[in-house]
């Protein structure tokens, strides 16, 4: 783990034809026929450890020919295949079905179906290998040769041990011959009959074996993940629309967000958190989990509460340069890898992000605005205040200009860049020169501005007028400073940030769209920002690029320098709508939904930034995570933005003024969670809107919420939070 945070390349590509199954902190990457082949990133993973790096099925020493993969739930797939032809036959008569369930390990139900009129005698072998590799080692393709992993037969099962015996796996089955690296079955499949076997991979963590969640001890439908997913699908809002692509994308988003929920050991009613994405980020990430929870509020508010509570427990309490922990700071990433040397219940925390801390306050305020978990929100207020204290005591003092939020890594083992564009080359000048830290990012100032406004509203509700005035003044001061220092009049846009000398980093980049979302941008500058975002240099037809094509660092196949990120675009749509640029917001939204349709309804983490005029379909980015949390939440947020649905329940108000594109036709949402109840919303093609199920004390405003800051501090008129 020593160098885990400093990797400056990109993850190993999974390759074409791979299948990824996900459940909580567990996942499996395999080839199309179900085999896990050694030498690459494929494997069975749990707690940031690759338990198995080989899992290959052979019948009579020959591989299975793939026929089809039947994708079920995110944790389940059935791999259909056939064996080589039987002796004396031209075609195969032996079908193979591998029914696989992932979660806390793996369960695989094997079925051989004999389609001939003669009994088939065969040898079925499962070849097994393991390197007990840390996820980071696999991710960057730097797995060391590990001669200290033993595969020890125990009866009909195999035990996989690392040298320390702290981590490994137990592969359990019945009626098998177990030898090191192999489980074998000698079977006779009856004519027109079947043979079945079940193999279960149980993880060993800290020397203790735990049951895979889809255990053979109970039916699959009664396993914890199946029960939770069924409840998620049953109780969440239901959307009906005339636009089939939107309906399909929203269904897939809901399913993916359900699969990425993380449940910590504890009370059964403890709300979940959200993992950042599969395969490499199946853990809690401060920035990703907070923004995903914010965007997913129309689906369910429980992940927001779970994320806030979990991050509060991990909030910094001391100064540690190696982990970059500081009092009040919100973590960037939590890991449990085999090389971390920590218990999976504790995890290794890294704090190297500048934006998770203000976003913590922003999400807490948004949860309050939806009128949910009021007591829990109040209990978390001390953590919000600690986060705001970190901004003033550490973040603002890290750079040359006071009053702004800066970052600079504490040692050479930390991330060089600590905003959402956190690759080593993600922050650069217009000529392509890399910016040098300390750096004050434009969007991070917007997040702080929104956090200050949020805190002033909390104080207003509590009757604490001194704190209210303090944070209102801080917000106004930051906004003035931001618009003076970050605005580039010669370009008509905001700088990406300021460098160590206080110079504007003059790239034309998507970061300024976040400044519209948070409301820190001056009204007279927003029109220029909107023009840039929709210019040919930035808008591809499928979404807004991270930087303009005229910039020196532009590369549409790069991670952060010309690609398109769905979550970035969702916040841009929200920002454009906030400042009244309806047509522009609709254009970006429809482009992104077209991209989602091309990806089968599932938006990936990012895709290449080629222009739609050049290539009529979006070009995938090879190592993009999928499913990925904030990409999955983006269609939900875009739909909310187009509905202009803005609750402010503590003040008894709700703004809703839909501006749906004509292609949407009629839109019906049933069971939208709000104010402790369920609301139904119908929007007809004409724009006529009907709400039902709303508490009678809530006043509905059929107009967009007043946008930004000319009335900061006037809590009786509107909210200035994102």
Automatic annotation (TrEMBL):
Protein known as: Glycogen debranching N-terminal domain-containing protein
All residue ranges annotated as the Putative glycogen debranching enzyme N-terminal domain in the record: 21-199
Classification via Pfam families: GDE_N_bis, MGH1-like_GH
InterPro entries: 6-hairpin_glycosidase_sf, 6hp_glycosidase-like_sf, GDE_N_bis, MGH1-like_GH
Domain of life: Bacteria
Domain Mannosylglycerate hydrolase MGH1-like glycoside hydrolase span(s) in chain numbering: 440-597
Cross-referenced Gene3D superfamilies: 1.50.10.10
């Amino acid at each position: 783990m020593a160098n885990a945070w400093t990797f400056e390349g990109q993850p190993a590509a999974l390759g074409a034809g791979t299948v990824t199954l996900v459940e909580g902190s567990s996942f499996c990457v395999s080839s199309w026929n179900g085999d896990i082949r050694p030498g690459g990133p494929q494997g069975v993973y749990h707690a940031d450890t690759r338990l198995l790096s080989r899992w290959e099925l052979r019948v009579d020493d020959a591989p299975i020919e793939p026929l089809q993969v039947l994708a079920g739930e995110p944790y389940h797939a059935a791999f259909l295949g056939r064996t080589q032809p039987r002796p004396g036959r031209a075609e195969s008569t032996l079908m193979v079905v591998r029914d696989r369930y992932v979660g806390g390990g793996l369960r695989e139900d094997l079925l051989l179906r004999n389609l001939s009129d003669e009994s088939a005698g065969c040898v079925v072998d499962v070849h097994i290998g393991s390197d007990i590799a840390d996820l980071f080692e696999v991710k960057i393709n730097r797995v060391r040769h590990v001669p200290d992993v033993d595969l020890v037969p125990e009866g009909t099962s195999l035990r996989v041990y690392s040298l320390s015996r702290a981590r490994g796996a137990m592969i359990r089955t019945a009626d098998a011959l177990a030898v090191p690296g192999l489980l074998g079955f000698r079977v006779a499949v009856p004519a027109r009959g079947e043979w079945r076997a079940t193999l279960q991979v149980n993880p060993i963590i800290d020397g203790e074996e735990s049951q895979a969640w889809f255990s053979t001890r109970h039916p699959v439908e009664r396993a914890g993940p199946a029960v939770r997913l069924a409840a998620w699908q049953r109780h969440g809002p239901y959307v009906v629309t005339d636009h089939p692509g939107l309906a399909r994308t929203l269904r897939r988003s809901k399913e993916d967000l359900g699969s990425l929920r993380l449940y910590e050991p504890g009370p059964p009613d403890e709300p979940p958190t959200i993992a950042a994405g599969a395969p490499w980020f199946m853990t809690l990430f401060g920035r990703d989990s907070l923004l995903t929870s914010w965007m997913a509020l129309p689906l369910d508010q429980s992940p927001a509460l779970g994320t806030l509570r979990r991050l509060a427990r991990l909030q910094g309490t001391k100064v540690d340069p190696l982990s970059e922990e500081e009092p009040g700071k919100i973590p960037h990433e939590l890991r449990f890898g085999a090389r971390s040397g920590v218990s999976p219940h504790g995890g290794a925390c890294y704090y190297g992000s500048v934006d998770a801390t203000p976003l913590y306050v922003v999400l807490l305020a948004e949860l309050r605005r939806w009128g949910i978990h009021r007591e829990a929100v109040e209990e978390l207020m001390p953590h919000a205040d600690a986060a705001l204290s970190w901004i003033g005591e550490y973040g603002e003092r890290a750079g040359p200009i006071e009053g702004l939020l800066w970052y600079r890594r504490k040692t050479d083992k930390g991330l060089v860049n600590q905003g959402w564009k956190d690759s080593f080359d993600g922050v650069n000048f217009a000529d392509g020169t890399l910016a040098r830290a300390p750096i004050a990012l434009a969007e991070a100032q917007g997040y702080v501005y929104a956090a200050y406004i949020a805190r002033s509203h909390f104080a207003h509700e509590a009757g604490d007028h001194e704190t209210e005035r303090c944070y209102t003044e801080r917000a106004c001061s930051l906004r003035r400073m931001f618009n003076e220092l970050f605005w580039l009049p010669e370009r008509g846009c905001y700088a990406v940030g300021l460098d160590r000398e206080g110079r504007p980093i003059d790239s034309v980049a998507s970061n300024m769209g976040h400044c519209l979302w948070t409301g820190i941008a001056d009204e007279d500058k927003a029109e220029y920002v909107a023009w840039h975002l929709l210019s040919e240099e930035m808008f591809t037809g499928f979404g807004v690029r991270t930087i303009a094509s005229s910039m020196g660092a532009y590369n549409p196949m790069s991670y952060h320098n010309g690609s398109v990120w769905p979550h970035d675009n969702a916040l841009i749509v929200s920002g454009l709508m906030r400042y009244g640029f309806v047509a522009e917001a609709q254009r970006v939204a429809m482009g992104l939904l077209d991209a989602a349709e091309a990806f089968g309804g599932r938006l990936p983490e990012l895709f290449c930034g080629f222009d739609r005029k050049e290539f009529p379909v979006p070009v995938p980015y090879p190592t993009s995570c999928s499913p990925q949390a904030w990409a999955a939440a983006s269609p939900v947020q875009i739909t909310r933005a187009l509905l202009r649905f803005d609750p402010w329940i503590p003040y008894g108000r709700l703004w809703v003024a839909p501006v749906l594109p004509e292609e949407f036709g009629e839109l019906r949402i049933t069971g939208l969670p709000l104010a402790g109840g369920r609301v139904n919303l119908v929007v007809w093609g004409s724009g006529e809107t009907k709400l039902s199920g709303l508490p009678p004390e809530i006043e509905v405003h059929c107009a967009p919420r007043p946008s930004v800051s000319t009335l900061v501090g006037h809590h009786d008129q509107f909210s200035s939070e994102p």
